[in-house]
Amino acid sequence: MAEEFLTSAFVKLRTVLKGRAGRVLGSETAADDALQEAFYKLWQRGYALRSQQDAEALLARAVQNAAIDEVRRRKRSGEVDIPAEVTSLAEEPARDDREQMLRSVRNSIESALTPLQRRILRRRDIEGKSYEAIASECGMQETAVRMQLSRARKTIREQYLLQQRSNG
């Protein structure tokens, strides 16, 4: 079923996603390559997609990431002709800033979330399990799993924003 969602999303959004990738990469051929690469990677990983909307969102993010990765690769290899507005999309934050941000998020997860929220967050966002599978595993209703995940994400977001305010 997940393959059907992914294929359907690819067919439906192909033109739109190719246009977005083309604007970032500046080439129709490179945009096609980014689109195919993203689709292939998602197909290989076999995500447990539960809806067409999930597939569309995942595919859109994967195409954007593939295009930005290509811009970064070009920049590292010294290829030229990348417009400034495109490279600004692909600029990585300084390594120290990124590591500090990751530490902050990890600390928030460890200190602010309940063990149940950490478990659900890990199962859903890292392992890619479905809400149904997590609910069964935890002996909960699907709606309770969604609620706990929502609360966990909100807590992490709030902790991160507090951290940003105190650093800014």
Structural overview:
The protein has 168 residues and is an all-alpha fold. The chain contains eight helices and no strands. The protein has helices spanning 2-25, 28-45, 52-77, 84-90, 95-112, 115-126, 131-138, 142-167. The longest helix has 26 residues, at 52-77. The termini are far apart.
Describe the secondary structure blueprint for this structure.
Elements: H1 2-25, H2 28-45, H3 52-77, H4 84-90, H5 95-112, H6 115-126, H7 131-138, H8 142-167
Helix pairs in contact: 1-2, 1-3, 2-3, 3-4, 5-8, 6-8, 7-8
- Rounded to an integer in angstroms, the radius of gyration calculated over CA atoms is 19 Å
The portion of residues forming beta strands comes to under 5%
Structural class: mainly alpha
What is the end-to-end distance? 46 Å
What about the largest sheet?
none
- Backbone shape: flat
**Topology, number of strands:** 0
Could you spell the SSE succession in H and E letters?
Answer: HHHHHHHH
Into which percent range does the helicity of residues fall? over 70%
Low-confidence stretches: 84-93
Mean pLDDT: 76
Number of helices: 8
